Amino acid sequence: MTDKQLSPSELDQSLVRDLSRLPHYSPSRAFAAVVMARVRLPQPRAVVLYRRARAWVVEPRRALALGASYAVAASLALWLAVPWIFRQGSAINFVAGQATAWLSDTLRQAALSAAGWAVSSGITGFVDSLALTGGRLWFAVGTLVVGYASCAVGLHYLLRTPRGKDVALQPSH
Amino acid sequence: MPTAKDLQSATDQEVVALARAGKEAAYRELLRRYERPVFSLIYRMVRDRELAEDLSQETFVKVLNALESYRPEYKFSSWIFKIANNAAIDQLRRREIETLSLDGAPGARTPDEVEATALQAVDRSESALEEMAARELGTAIEQAIGKLRPEYRACILLRHVDGRSYEEIAETLDLPLGTVKTYIHRARHELREYLGPLRA
Q1: A40: which chain B residues are within 8 Å (Cβ-Cβ)?
Q2: What is the ipTM of this complex?
């Protein structure tokens, strides 16, 4: 400011020095958060492929072509499979019977184990001691139903995408 | 997984490579490194804080969403400054605000608006008197920069405020090296003229 007698080159140096001292300005505090909210982070390969496939399929013509192909393939498979099933009827019946017996046996064992555990743990005694009859029973059932419904509604609002905003879900790293 | 300290010491190219691999921390590091230089460049170009913030956001969103197309043989800083400068120049052309007010943004009408939009430059000084003098000089320089042509303004800011080389400025602004040197020479000459009365 007091460089009245300075030569042009000295004035130039002084200007350059003053320019280099100018500060950098900062954007608002929310700047980085706002930018990051609008940045699409790279997704895992599987997710990218799934999204591409879904985007490809939802196009109406492709969806129609895909549906028609599926129907033709299913009809063809059925046309080949039905005679084979009739020919192998007895063997299939035998295997199905075996499988059904095994499944029902397993379920029965599991139900017995659960009942045995319930009796031995004292839960049945506790439920008996509550004396849930008449109005009390209806009150308990009603409370449970309302509780479950509230949880379901709460989850729905918690997990839904905000209306009117295209919010991309990003994996956390 | 790289820590924040590793990221801070990594080169731009290394940070970009990590960002491409999906590391969110690398995106944040690029933002941390360039948010102030980019915002300052745009702010000094358009002289409107809100507009500068919007344009800076657009710049970063564009850059960070296009990292796949970034070629590591070029400097990352040149790339981001190029996009920032283009955003500012486009805005100046669109709004035709090349002729800037000496004291504030072109849209400023009332004294309050003029004061709010005037750039205030403060340097670190030891005494209150020095701080006042620095503020006065800094503000005068900011105002003088605001009177330069946008091309000159971009060149002088990149060269002397951000400390970029002539070659990098030429790459950033897509200008021949000779043109950059000429622009900076003329810009300095004009600044000396604008600031002459203050220095006398």
Answers
A1: 65
A2: 0.74
